[in-house]
Batch of 4 targets.
Target 1
Amino acid sequence: MLVWNGDCYYLLGHTDKHGVTPFRVDRIALPPHILEEDAVPQPKDFDITRVNTMFGMFIGEPQRVTLVCDNSVMDHIVDRFGEDVETVPVDGKTFQASVLVTASKPFFGWVFGFDGKVRITAPAKVKREYEKMLQRAVENS
């Protein structure tokens, strides 16, 4: 199955070792060859909606993350997570969004790109991972 994500096409494949795995189409070096045997059926537990939780097609366990966002980024939140994203007003200037994501460096980079207008508030473990990544960036600059 081909999936468009982050301005790239990915071929979702399956390996015994890694399960469902994305392969970036423009980085596939050799032309594919057609196998004689039948294709392996899609795994029964495969859920295409999990692709929407990925950032940069990083696979991992999706988890619920709470973001506090400036009202000016609402369109970006809806564009990324869909019209059914759970949001509640916090005050006149911000709202809280509960999103299902694979917490990864590309996700943290996406949050950082909003220049403080999107903040991770929960779970604490994800917030700490983000803070550690920011600290490493400051230390290495």
Target 2
Amino acid sequence: MSFTKLDRRDIAILKTLATEGRISKTALAERVNLSATACWDRLQRLEGSGLIKGYHADFELRQLAPHVTVFVLAELASHKAEAFQTFEAIVDSHDEITGCWALGGGFDYLLQVISRDIESYQRLMDTVLEQDAGLARYFTYIVTKAVKQTPLPFDLLFDTQ
């Protein structure tokens, strides 16, 4: 895999956007010590390269609506390519599944599900099973509280010295 070459200013732009996505372009330029034009050019390059996939708001779900967050460990019955493709297509078709990661090791996938309640979650899983997603077994873990959620650890990922 080839990585996009980033210098310390690019990293500073990304780090700032990770915590302050709504920052104005002028304020961003000041924060990373660039002229507005130079900062805008870099931002367009970072967006154009696909490094910046979008800008999002971070919501306090407890205040927004009743919900339950569930993590699901899933193991497929078959490990043929078609089985993985089928499972991933089914996962992609359900909006309640807000995250899905393929794993190495004992389980094949980790899913994050956000549903209105446990009954809604169970209906989702019943539907996934009826769609013949190829599950051998799955394990449900209900989130009781969020302990930590942070932006990317830019200082640990990049040597900016």
Target 3
Amino acid sequence: MSESDSDSMKLFEKTIEVENVYSGKILELTREKAELENGSVAYREVVHHSGGVCVVALTDKNEVLMVRQFRYPFKEVLLEVPAGKREKGEDPLQCGIRELKEECGAEAEKIIPLGRLYPTVAYDTEVIYMYLATGLSFGEQSLDDDEFLEVERIPLDEACRMVMEDKIPDSKTQLALLKAQKLIGSMSER
């Protein structure tokens, strides 16, 4: 193997074989055989998920629209920014617009990308796209049949304080709120 070939393998794991273990409504699970950079073989379990979006929707009074809902895996009610699952191939921005309307009955004049988040890099392909929405107008919610939530308005500074006090454990909500606060702060300094 030439030096350039070994450099291209550095830190890289080559997929050799993929076994589909489970296919469900929102995810697939595969068991994959991978060749490591030293030539040895390891097995990886990978959750395949189409990803999602979350939206920090900010009112003219600098309040964030938050949703309180039961999260089954943790058996607790969590406070989060509006969010939802992307359909395969769905544009993240369009998904964010749809989710904001469905969950909060809100539409935005302006939507600013806040980046993307890989919530669980060791075993999950999920990518969450984050947005800041301003210039809100309100209509009716349009929740899914199996979706139950309450919408709250919380001042942005208070929501960020709640993140720092460990009162909001959801990762997408934490990062999106803190990024929105930082962006808004840097925009007002200009």
Target 4
Amino acid sequence: MSDLERLQKVIAHAGVASRRKAEDLIVQGKVTVNGKVVKELGTKVSPNDKVEVEGVPIAKEPPVYYLFYKPRGVISSVKDDKGRKVVTDYFPEVEERIFPIGRLDYDTSGVLLLTNDGDFANLLMHPSYQIDKVYVAKTKGIPSTEQLKSFKKGINVDGDRLKAVHAKVISTDQKKNTAIVQLILHEGKNRQVRKMFEAIGVPVDKLKREKYGFITVEGMNAGDIRPLKPHEVKQLRELADKNVK
């Protein structure tokens, strides 16, 4: 894997400016690399290059890793143009420019990881790395064994092939015609679990991601955060590496 990154990305990641603003600064000749003015937006730099913006060296942030128990009704983003609550609103004390690894839908709660380490995030999100994501859904209706088998084979929804690694009914309430169903996914497409259940005519009432790999929110309340322990970060890296095809 190349250590070279686009100059505007490096500036943005250091917290100096947004990526778009960083591009403006480059074009305006306000950025130097190893003492030379660079105005070319395609320029890539290595971690050893000395980058200065308006004469001030950029400081590289130390990597940080957090587990967040995302509540329902929160956007998995760092900002929202409609003014809705976003996940980073729960991290007012964190100075680093963290972002969520992947996303959980607005109405879905549970395990969400955040970091400022782009390589770590890419490693976990890459489709080749098969990390189990365990979801528990409360459904309006009780899916049949055959319907759950179709999840494992994969179903076509809106031109997408959506698939679960595992699917089982945990419990049912015949009177209320509801069920608690566990699904394990390797991918995480937009509203995937809800779309899969809608496709079989069993809509989801509530949805929670209970596990990401081996990480759980056990003992936490919705809205709680905690730093990942160093051994957890190491294990997640190893898990992704082990699962590569």
